[in-house]
Amino acid sequence: MSIEGIEAVFLETHNWGRAAKFYEALGFELEFATDHNSGMLRHRTGPYLFLAEVPPSQETKTSLVLKVTDEQEFRPDPILEVTTEFEDTHYGTRELTVRDPDGRDWVLSAPGKA
Question: What 3-state class would DSSP assign to 91?
Answer without folding.
Answer: coil
